[in-house]
Amino acid sequence: MRDTVIFCHSEHHGNTKKLVSALAEKYGAEVVPVPGADATDVSEYKAVGFASGIYFEKFHSSLFSLAEGLRGLSGKKCFLLFTAGMPNPRNADSLAKKLKALGAEVAGVYGCRGWDTVGPLRLFGGIAKGRPNEKDIAGAIKFFEDKVLTRD
Questions:
Q1: Which run of H or of E encompasses 84?
Q2: Alpha helix locations (H) across the chain?
Q3: Which candidate, 52, 54, 55, places its Cα nearest to that of 81?
């Protein structure tokens, strides 16, 4: 059985990709870019991650579509990672609810600030420039160790 796969949608500034890349480097997690990922069988993995920036207060729609098509998701340990200009823990609620409806266990959620220049924010250079930073990345690693690796 393989350990971890993370389906990642990282657009604009690569904020979410920074978190996912750190986990891939440290723990050998397989990273699958979304969109572009085909529905696949995840039963061979111990944990399945979903990572995205936040779009209109929720994860990117491509992750919802992908989750619906994944085989082997029922009973699987899942986790969520996100970045946002102004993160809110509730940003993960709709995807967590979807995963639970598909029979998955949501082991936890990690969110942090990410540089955001969408819409009128670009007029003044955006918010949260320089984020995620090393502290945010270390937080993602600690989250992964505490919530994903230690729960079997």
A1: strand 77-84
A2: 15-27, 61-69, 93-101, 134-143
A3: 52
Q: Tally the residues of the chain.
A: 152
Quick count: other Cβ atoms within 10 Å of Cβ 35?
12
Q: What is the pairing mode between strands 58-59 and 45-55?
A: antiparallel
Q: What is the Cα Rg of the chain in Å?
A: 15
Band (pLDDT 50/70/90 cuts) for residue 1 is: very low
pTM for this model (two decimals):
0.91
All structural domains of the chain, each given as residue ranges with its CATH number in brackets, are 2-149 (3.40.50.360)
Angle subtended at Cα 47 by Cα 95 and Cα 152, rounded to the nearest 5 degrees? 115
